[in-house]
């Protein structure tokens, strides 16, 4: 898991957005941000997580916090995911290799039904207005997660 801890500067990044643009660390400067990493668009846990964050987006905005969901799915897959589930949360595509998830250590070895493979380890980071990590949630369980993150954003 990530060697990045609360108090550390969140690494710089540039990722592609579903609309063909990019999002960078600098784009998030001046406000708090929640960056949540999830394995794959349109899978049950990932859909629930993205819908939960979308449902609470206005509450995060009231807390001065932006939301960004990240997976290695293509921008086109993100477009379909957003349309299919009416998501309001911003999404970005991480690089296949050497991306932000690799830097943070949230891309790693996973096991499912006895099979070992490389994949995204569901993780969330709360970033302060100064670009430093305020809190991190490694190996997230989806149920109740959004409420916990919102409470942390409100008290940060």
UniProtKB/TrEMBL annotation:
SUPFAM superfamilies, A to Z: Thioredoxin-like
CDD domains reported in the protein's UniProt record: PRX_BCP
EC number, UniProt record: 1.11.1.24
Family matches, as InterPro entries: AhpC/TSA (IPR000866), Peroxiredoxin_AhpC-typ (IPR024706), Peroxiredoxin_BCP/PrxQ (IPR050924), Thioredoxin-like_sf (IPR036249), Thioredoxin_domain (IPR013766)
Presence of the UniProt keyword Zinc-finger in the record: no
Keywords in alphabetical order: Antioxidant, Disulfide bond, Oxidoreductase, Peroxidase, Redox-active center
Domain (Thioredoxin): residue spans on this chain: 4-156
Catalytically driven reaction(s): a hydroperoxide + [thioredoxin]-dithiol = an alcohol + [thioredoxin]-disulfide + H2O
Cited PROSITE patterns: THIOREDOXIN_2
Entry keyword Oxidoreductase: yes
Biological role stated in the UniProt entry: Thiol-specific peroxidase that catalyzes the reduction of hydrogen peroxide and organic hydroperoxides to water and alcohols, respectively. Plays a role in cell protection against oxidative stress by detoxifying peroxides and as sensor of hydrogen peroxide-mediated signaling events.
Family in the record: Belongs to the peroxiredoxin family. BCP/PrxQ subfamily.
Quaternary structure (record): Monomer.
Listed PANTHER family: AHPC_TSA FAMILY PROTEIN, THIOREDOXIN-DEPENDENT PEROXIDE REDUCTASE
Record's protein name: thioredoxin-dependent peroxiredoxin
């Amino acid at each position: 898991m990530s060697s990045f801890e609360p108090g550390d500067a969140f690494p710089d990044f540039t990722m592609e957005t579903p609309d063909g643009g990019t999002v960078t660390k600098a784009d998030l400067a001046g406000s708090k941000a929640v960056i949540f990493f999830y394995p794959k668009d349109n899978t049950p846990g990932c859909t629930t997580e993205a819908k939960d964050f979308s449902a609470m987006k206005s509450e995060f905005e009231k807390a001065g916090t932006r939301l960004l969901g990240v997976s290695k799915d293509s921008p086109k897959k993100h477009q379909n995911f957003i349309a299919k589930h009416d998501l309001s949360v911003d999404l970005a595509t991480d690089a296949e290799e050497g991306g932000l998830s690799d830097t943070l250590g949230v891309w790693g070895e996973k096991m499912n039904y006895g099979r070992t493979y490389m994949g995204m380890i569901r993780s969330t980071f709360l970033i302060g207005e100064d670009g430093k990590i305020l809190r991190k949630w490694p190996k997230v369980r989806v149920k109740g997660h959004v409420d916990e993150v919102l409470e942390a954003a409100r008290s940060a």
